[in-house]
Amino acid sequence: MSRSARIVVLRLAGAVPTLLIVALAAFALLEFAPGDAVDAYLAETGGDAGYAAELRRRLGLGGTAWERLAGFLLSLGTLDLGRSVVFSRPVVSVIAERLPNTLLLMASTTLFAAGLGLLAGMLAGARPGSWRDRGLSMTALAFLAAPNFWLGLVLVVAFAVSWPLLPVAGLRSLNAPPGLAAAVLDTAWHLVLPTIALGAGYVALYLRTLRAGMITAWQADHVRAAQARGVGDGAVLWRAVTRPALLPTVVIAGQNIGTLLGGSVVVETVFAIPGMGRLAYEAVTGRDTPLLLGVILSATVLVLAVNLLVDLLLARLDPRIGAADA
Amino acid sequence: MTLHRRTLLAGAGAIGAAALTRKARAQGGPAPRTGGILTVAADTEPRNLNPAMVASNGVFYVASKVIEPLAEMTTEGDGLAPRLATRWEGAPDGRSVTFTLREGVSWHDGRPFSSADVAFSAMRLWKPLQNLGRVVFKSLEAVDTPDARTAIFRFGEPTPFQMIRNAVPGLASVVPRHLYEVGDIAANPANTRLVGTGPFRFAEHRPGEFYRLEKNPSYWEAGRPYLDQIVFRVLPDRGAIAAALEANQIQLAAFSAVPLADMERLSRVPGIAVIPQGYDGITYQLTVEINHRRKELADARVRRAIAHAIDRKFVVDTIFLGYAKPSTGPVPAFDKQFYTPDVPSTPFDRRRAEALLDEAGLPRGANGMRFTLRLLPAPWFEQTRQFGDYLRQALRAVGIDAQIVNNDAPAHLRAVYTDHAFDLAIGSPVYRNDPAISTTILYESGLPAGVPFANQYGYASAEMDGLIRRAAGTIDTTERTALYQSFQKLAGTELPLIHVAEFTFITVARRSVMNVANNPRWATSHWADTWLSS
Question: Which CATH architecture has domain A94-285?
């Protein structure tokens, strides 16, 4: 079996219990939360006793927790996520609508954070302790410390209200110009502020990880050997110092996917982006068990898939990974 | 972020007090301009948008432009302005009400509107399915349609015409029979893709993004509506709503979607107006709900002491920043039909409160406290939560230790109205312009657990139940009004729950939006006369 294939098989085998644990935890979470989907709905409308009973009957909220669990596992086994209570539609269709927006936001955020963070990290790590290093590290730290909802609102006030350069909210103009190129440009324009709000904190993570790796590398024997051999400064910096230090940042990128999803709840709310983060919030406040499970399961699959990709990438970058059968 | 801010209960009609038109009438001003797209903020997307099934402000906000009621609330004349009905008349015996319907009205799909649609909406939706109609129309037996322009509502028991009139604006939205007569009404696609007779047609809903309504070119009122489109932009964050208004990316936010604390700043932004009118017909009441199962609270002296401990003026000035009025009882002062100020009052008086508590045999203990309570503020308004914090301090000052328990909306509903796991709760029932529709349910006993926004307080008084029953069966308007005034007095004497303040909402709009707030249910009315100056 090739190295890549072995990694894929091992990860997939590990994914099944992970998914099951996550699904059960999500189910338990909503079962133990006081109030059900009908209580959530009645908070908006009121209604007499018969009205509530009729709603519960329609939504299939009767039975014991065990019966509901059995029904849930059964539908999970047949890969049917059921119907959302809040949206009165199949969960799959609701998620299919929202997932692309979140993927887009996560991709642009990762590109932005990794691009800027790695560049700054390289500049900082090239000469640790220099003023340039300190300046960059401090700035990045400040962004790490700023909560993303606050940063989002500040960005909106600065670049959409005081200086109306960028749109306040959404991912598309209401009257978007026709044509694919125009639509892509329109969406990219809308993505600028949310990407910065969500990504600013991660810039610091990439910077610090790369910088720390480079500082270690500067003291490594192979760097001294290269310098002693008279290899040029640029080549030492890139080939001997930066490249080995890049490896951990790939791991960081994979691990960030989970926290990125968490952060997207806030950023999607501030910027009115219909994505998975907001959907999770709506599912919890509406006590919409099928929807929340759908959201959590798709998020889990996403995290597992990204980490699988990261493992495959690492295996390519570092020949030692996955080489042995042991 | 409050998801339920706007989505509480609907208002019905009545003779509202002075809801003032901004500009429109006073100014006589410029001639209305036809055209333009009005973009407004929305913060919820109701799963069922059909107002004939779900009478709630969140639904009306969008749906009232597409689907019309028989009549709308107004400050003029007898309090009702014609919509799909042009005349209404109650029989003296209270057994029937006759509506004369408008000529020349058609549905958005081109089919003609007739009395059969009204009969179908009433018998198949309002009475059996609608959250509010199930109670108000419970004795409706049939709707006769002798011709296409006449609908006669027949009641099994004498039903006060006054109540039916007051219910019409909120509860009597008419949907097309030809789209609903086949299949399960609750699962009908027209519940989300509305088809009505209103000034705007439902064009598009992109979930999580916006609703788009388009002008109905064949609306029955010639020359209306003025606007080409209304776009309801879904903006869940309140800070983002304020920013979008400032950037003119939306032109209007209703239902106090912008936090009260930001109003002062926004009102100074050129081009933006803060408009506190246009909500009298949907007045909310800030209440302290009391669990009478708790033995200390079963004593009227203790309830009265709690009322004396509350400084209503402070609540209005500090929590509502002046955008509210102190309450005297269960009927708000704006309702000229029923309100009486002649009720036992409980002015702010800590010494009196302490004396009453001492008298009730609850002296201060070693720690200075008399007893401990659980206090559950309703989570849906900023103001209900803040009043919870205030009440805790106010009660501490008279020796009652209130422990705040915070919940989200479904958990709060379950705890207070089903499990009765509270001692005090902060509520915000909406006054629906007739005590029989919205208010007596907070006082009558014998309701099953699980009915929200109702007497789940364990309060049972034979005198109160008798009075409520008598008023419900009284047809004569004068006599009925007098009974509801006695009801207000008895509510003040027994004080099963405490009404603290009456609050409505605030609209923030660009000054380019004209004819804002020109009726008492403006945000939930049809906006046919709303226009945009260039």
Answer: Orthogonal Bundle (1.10)
